[in-house]
Amino acid sequence: MRAIPREDVPVVIADGDLEVRLLDQEGTSVGFVRLPAGADLRPATKGLQDDLCPCPHWGYMLKGRVRMHTTEGHQDFVAGEAFYWAPGHAPEALEDSEYVDFSPTDEFAKVVEHITSGAEEPT
User: Fold this and answer.
1) pLDDT tens digits along 5-19
2) Backbone φ/ψ region at 16: left (φ over 0), alpha (ψ -120 to 50), beta
3) Tens digits of per-residue pLDDT, 28-61?
């Protein structure tokens, strides 16, 4: 058994109050994410398939409200909810938000690389 404190997880994306921390655990990335109100990651996902994140995520909303945009519209997720985000989404923080998510490491690493290697910065 193992506990993973947030502060022990490396930061892979940092932009002001936006922060993504990721740690690979046997092929699954454990992520701690903070999005300030107004952060919209749709510009950062441009260039990926359908201009959206192609990686699935399972997790739990700790704080705030996040709107997940898809090709079919959007859905809001709020603190206290567990979630599954299928491939084909991009988050927008409607409030200061924090969540923990679990993703396939190989798939999410490609998304992080795209976001950090010259794609447009989140707004």
Assistant:
1) 999 999 999 999 999
2) left
3) 999 999 999 999 999 999 999 999 999 999 999 9
Q: Which residue has the higher pLDDT, 118 or 61?
A: 61
Could you give the CA distance from residue 104 to residue 123 in angstroms, rounded to a whole number? 26
Residue 34 token pair: 């903070």
- SS3 call for 115: helix
Beta-bridge mates of residue 13: 20
Helix, strand, or coil (residue 8): helix
Give the contacts of 17 (CB within 8 A, at least 6 positions apart): 34, 36, 39, 96
**Sheet of 90-93, strand order:** 73-78, 65-70, 90-93
Query: Is the dihedral angle over the CA atoms 21, 96, 51, 77 positive or is it negative?
Result: positive
φ and ψ at 119, to 5 degrees? Answer: -65, 165
Instruction: Using alpha carbons, select from 31, 45, 37 the residue that is nearest to residue 67.
Output: 37
Distance between CA atoms of residues 90 and 110, nearest Å? 15
